Amino acid sequence: MEDIEPPELATQLGEQLVAEILQNASVDAVKSLVEAGAPVWYQSGAEGTSPLHAAAYVRSLELVKYLIDKGAVWNAVDFMQNTAGDIALSFNDAEIYTAVRDAGIRTELLLGLLSSRDDSSLDHSTNLILRASDDTAAGSSEDFLSSKLRYTKDESGQDLCFIEVDGEDIGVMMGWEMPIMKETVHSIYDSLPERDNIRVLNVGFGLGIIDRLFQALPTPPALHVIIEPHPDVLRYMKDNDWHQKPGVRVLEGRWQDLVEKEDFLALGGFDVIYTDTFSENYRDLHQFFEHLPDLLSGSNARFSFFHGLGATNPLFYDVYTRISELHLAEIGLDVQWSDVDVRPPKYEERWARSREYFTLPTYRLPLAYLHTLP
Length: 374
Hints:
Blueprint: H1 6-22, H2 27-35, H3 51-57, H4 61-69, H5 84-90, H6 94-116, H7 141-145, E1 149-153, E2 159-165, E3 168-174, H8 178-191, E4 199-203, H9 209-215, E5 223-228, H10 231-239, E6 248-252, H11 262-265, E7 272-275, H12 282-289, H13 292-295, E8 302-305, H14 314-330, E9 333-341, H15 347-351, E10 354-355, E11 362-370
Parallel strand pairs: 3-10, 4-5, 4-7, 5-6, 7-8
Antiparallel strand pairs: 1-2, 2-3, 9-11
Pfam family, one: Ank_2
Protein name: RMT2 domain-containing protein
GO molecular function: protein arginine N5-methyltransferase activity
C-alpha cells in the first residue's frame, strides 16, 4: 500500500473520526481510531465539525468526557461559530454542556497560572482570547492610548464613543449600555449599609455614563475618583467640566501606574469601586482584582465591573463568569450575580456602524464584597 504522508494521514483519520462519531459508532470503535492516531483536535473541511462537536450532536456524555481527557479543544468553533457547548445548549443537554464548560474553566485557570509564571515556552494558541488576537488599537492598550477617539451620536440620538480600526468603527462605549449602568449603580447603592459620605473609585470614563449616575445619587459621593489614561477622553471630560465638579478628582494615567503610589493609597479606602476599561484583556482585570483588598474600605464596601468577557458566545461568557468568581474568591471577595435583560428593541439601532462586542440577550451583573468570617 502506498505510504501516506503524516498531514494527509491526520486529515484522513480526522475525517473518519468525525464521521464515525456522527454515525453513532461505539465508544470502543472511537477509542480505537484515536489510539490509531486520529487527532481529537481535528475539524472537518466541510463544516468545521470537531470530534467534540460530533459527540455533542449524538449526545454521548461518555464520548465527550473521553475526548476532553484526550485533549479535545473545548472552545473550537465550527464554520457557523458554534462550540460543542452551544450544540449541547441547543439540545438542552445540561450534562454535556457542563462537561464542556468545566473543561474550559480548568484549561483557562491552568493557562492563566502558567502565564503568571512568565513561562515563555508556553503555547497560548488554545487559550480563549476574549478579544481575538489583535495588534490594533482595539486589542493593544499602548496603541489605543495613541489612537484618535471620536464622540458622536447616531441617527437615533444614542451617544457613541468610537475608535476607527482599519476603516471599521469600534465602540469604546455606547449609549445602549445605560440600562446596565443604571442597574449596576442601583444594585451597589441599595446594598450599601451606609450611604452618606461614600467614596467612589471608577476606572475608565468612556462616555461617563456610570459617573453621571454616581453623581446623581440622592447624596453624591464625598469623594469621586476617576482614573482615565486616554488624552481624547480627558479632553472630553475637561470640555464637560468634570475636573471642576465638587468632590471629583480626575487622575490622568493608567491604573497600573497609579494604584500602588503612596499619594493614591493615602486617599484611603473606597466604599465603591467600579472598572470598565477598553483594550485590556482578562489578565489585566485579574491583576486589578488583586489590588482590591488594599483599595476597598472594608466588608461594607462594594466592587463591580463591566462583564463583557466573552460576551459574543454563551459558553465563553459562562466560563469567564465562573473564572472571575473563582479569582475574586481567592482574594476574599464573595460575588452575587443578577441578570439584566439587554435585548434591543431594534437591533440595527444599537450598533450603528460599530463592531458588535456584546451579542447575548442577558448581561450578568457582578456585585462583590469582602468576605466576612462568621
